[in-house]
Each structure stands twice: as structure tokens, then as C-alpha cells.
């Protein structure tokens, strides 16, 4: 029971990092250069690239937060929290059909790969730092 609670707390913290980070990044980019984000009702190509980099960095941070929380709270399932976090982020990414259509299939696949790689890097960073 406690392991499930630790897993839920880890997932909630990590998911919050990605969601609120992307919200802040999107609003920040939009406030700084509205024409850079949207041109003629379409998402700009440059913004898509910046968005992908921001997504990757936030997913790495979220993977780190999830695994670090799991390790600090002495849960034994750091691999499971990574799998669940990646699944949760991928489900959210692909379920939003309107944004998926605006971004395009190539960008969706790129962000999916970035999600898996980012969570894996976060997992790796925690275990490298903890083992030293």
C-alpha cells in the first residue's frame, strides 16, 4: 500500500513538472514573440523546434524528479515509475488530436522518442548520482 502511494506521489510530482513547465514555456514564448509561435493560424516551424527541445529538457527533469522521489521515499520501484511516467506522457501527447494534427506526424513521433529518451536519461542520472 505504501509503495503505491510513493509511486503516485512520484508520478504526480513528475507530471506536474512537465505540464506546468510546458505551460510556462508556451506562455513565455507567446508573450515574447507571438509571430514566432503562430503564423497564419499555423504553428511556426521554429517554434516546433524550440518546443521539442523544451519538451525534452522538461521530460529529463521529470524523469529525474520521479526517480529521485521514489529513491528518497525508499520505494523499490524506480523502473516502474519511469515506465508509468513515459506511458502517461505518451498517452497525453497522442490523445490530444487537435494539437497532434497541428504539429504533424513527424513532430509527434519526434516528441514521443524524446519522451522515452528523456525519462530514460532522468532515470540514468539519478542512479549515476546515487551510486557515487
Strand order across the largest sheet? 1-2
Order of helices and strands: HHEEHHHH
- As a percent range, the share of strand residues is under 5%
Unreliable spans are none
Characterize the quaternary organization of these chains: single chain
Number of helices: 6
Number of domains: 1
Largest sheet: 2 strands, antiparallel
From the spread of the alpha carbons, the general shape counts as elongated
**Rg, Cα atoms, Å:** 16 Å
Quickly give the structural class. Answer: mainly alpha
Mean pLDDT: 88
Helix content: over 70%
Terminal CA distance: 30 Å
Number of strands: 2
Characterization of this structure:
By secondary structure, the chain is mainly alpha-helical. The protein has six helices and two strands. Strand 1 and strand 2 form a beta hairpin. Helix 1 (2-32) crosses helix 4, helix 3 runs antiparallel to helix 4 (78-95) and helix 3 (45-72) packs parallel to helix 6 (105-131). The longest helix is centred in the first third of the chain and has 31 residues, at 2-32.
In short:
This protein is mainly α and 132 residues long.
Features of the shown structure:
6 helices, two-stranded antiparallel ribbon, mainly alpha, 132 residues, 87% helix
Write the layout of secondary structure elements.
Layout: H1 2-32, H2 34-37, E1 38-39, E2 42-43, H3 45-72, H4 78-95, H5 97-103, H6 105-131
Helix pairs in contact: 1-3, 1-4, 3-4, 3-6, 4-6
Amino acid at each position: 500500500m505504501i509503495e503505491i502511494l510513493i509511486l503516485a506521489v512520484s508520478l504526480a510530482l513528475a507530471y506536474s513538472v512537465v505540464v506546468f513547465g510546458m505551460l510556462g514555456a508556451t506562455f513565455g514564448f507567446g508573450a515574447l514573440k507571438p509571430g514566432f509561435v503562430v503564423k497564419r493560424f499555423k504553428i511556426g516551424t521554429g517554434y516546433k523546434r524550440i518546443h521539442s527541445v523544451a519538451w525534452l529538457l522538461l521530460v529529463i527533469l521529470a524523469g529525474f524528479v520521479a526517480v529521485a522521489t521514489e529513491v528518497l521515499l525508499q520505494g523499490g520501484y524506480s523502473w516502474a515509475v519511469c515506465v508509468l511516467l513515459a506511458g502517461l506522457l505518451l498517452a497525453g501527447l497522442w490523445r490530444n488530436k487537435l494539437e497532434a494534427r497541428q504539429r504533424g506526424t513527424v513532430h509527434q513521433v519526434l516528441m514521443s522518442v524524446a519522451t522515452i529518451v528523456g525519462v530514460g536519461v532522468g532515470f540514468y542520472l539519478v542512479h549515476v548520482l546515487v551510486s557515487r
